[in-house]
Amino acid sequence: MKYIEHIKSIILFLLVALSMTLTFLTWNYKPKYQTIEDIQVEHVALGEQKALNRVVKPYRLLFKGEENFTGTISSAVIDTLMDELSEMEANDLTLINHNLSDDKVNEMLRMPNRMTLFFQADVPIPTFAAMLPFHNTKDIPETTFDRIVIDWSYLSTTSQLQFLFINSDNRTLYRSVVKVDNKTSFKRNFIDQAAKFDNYMEIERPGTKSLYVLMNPTEVVPYTYSVGTISTELLKRILFTDPNIVQRNIESTQSERYTDGMSLMRLDMQNQSIHYVYPPAESLSPIAPSILMKDSMDFLNEHGGITEDYRLAAMNYQKHIIDYQMFFEDLPVYSDTTFTRVSTTWGDNRIFRYRRPYYVFDMNLPDDKAAKELASGPRVIEQIQSNLTTNINDINDLVIGYYLEHDANAELITLEPNWFMLTENGWERLTSEQVGGVEYGLE
C-alpha cells in the first residue's frame, strides 16, 4: 500500500500532461478545408436591356413653322431628341389649367415655332424626369401627359425652351421652362430640319381635337420574314422558380399548359403568344403610375424581354397594366391573328400577369413586291366619311402601320403596309383597293 500515493501522483501527472497536450493541439489545429469556388449564377435572358428613352418615346413629332405643319416618325430623329433632352435641365412644374378645352389644345399646336410630341399612352411626369432632368425632383407631381408642346420662340435670346405638358383625358396643362446648354445643336437637328420633313395637314373637327395626317401619298415597303421562336425551356427558366418541377400538359393542337402548382404559363399557338400568371401575387392596392412604370421596366429588363422595337402604348394604373406595342421600321404593327404587344400586370411586389409573343423575326426574305403606295391623309378622311359609319369625331388618330400575318404553317411572317384608324375600341385596319393607281385603304 506504500506505493499507492506514488501511483496516484504519476497518474495525476500523466492526466495533466495529456490535458496540456490536447489543449496545445486544439489551439494549433488547422483543418485542411477544400477551396469552395464561387458559384456562378447563370443569367437567363431573351435579349438585351433597353434604355427607358427607347421605350417611352413619342411616335410622331409635329412642327409648326410660320405657315405649314411638317412632321416625322423617324426613330433617328426622335432618338436624337430624346438623347438631347437628357442634356437639358427643367425648372419646377407649374399647373396652368385643369380644365383644358380641345379648342385650346388645337390653338397651342397651331402657334408658330412649336414642336409637338405625340405619345401613345399617358406618361408619368416622374418617369419623364428620368429622361429630362428637373432642377427639383422632390416636388414633381404624380401626374401624366400624352402630348408635349415645345416652344422655341425665345431660344436664341434666352437659351430656354417652354415645355407644355398636356393630358388630353384629364384636361390638365403643366408648364416648365427648360434650359438648353447647346442651342446650336437643337437648332441644327430640329428647327433647321423641320422644313425638310413630310408635310402634314390639320383636319379640324368641331368640338374636339384636330387630327394631323400626311398631306401626300406615301410609299411603304412590305416585308416577308422567316419565323423564329423563343424556346419554351428558356421561358420556363425565366418565369418559374424551379423549372425542374414544372409539368407540361398538351390541352389541344393550339394550346399547351405549364405549371408548378403555384403559377401557370400557357402557350397560345393561334395568337403566337405566351400567357403567364402567378395568382398569389394578385393585388389591386394603389400604385403610383411612375412606380408601376419602373416595376414593369425593371421586370422586362431583368430578362431582356423587350426583344423587338416595343414602345409604351397603354397604361391602366388602376389595374396595374402596362402594354408595349411592337414597331417595325418606325411604324406600329397590328394583327387580328397574332399578338403584337408585350403586356405586364404588376402584383404584390412581383409580376402577376405577363403576356408576350414567342415568335421573333428571323430572316428577311427578299421578294418581288414593290413598295405600296398609300393614299394621302385627306383622301383617307374623305373615304371614311363617304364609306364608313364611323363618326369622324370618334377617331383618336389615323396612322400608317404594318398589318402582320403568319402563313398557314407559321413559318413566314408578312408585314403589309396599311392605314389604321385608332378609336377608344382599339385599332381598325382600313383595307385597300385600287383607285386611279393609288392605294387609298378602304373597301
UniProtKB/TrEMBL annotation:
Transmembrane segments: 12-29
Span of the signal peptide: none
InterPro entries according to UniProt: YycH (IPR009996), YycH/YycI_2 (IPR042274)
Keyword list, A-Z: Membrane, Transmembrane, Transmembrane helix
Any Pfam family: YycH
UniProt domain Regulatory protein YycH: residue ranges: 5-441
Entry protein name: Two-component system activity regulator YycH
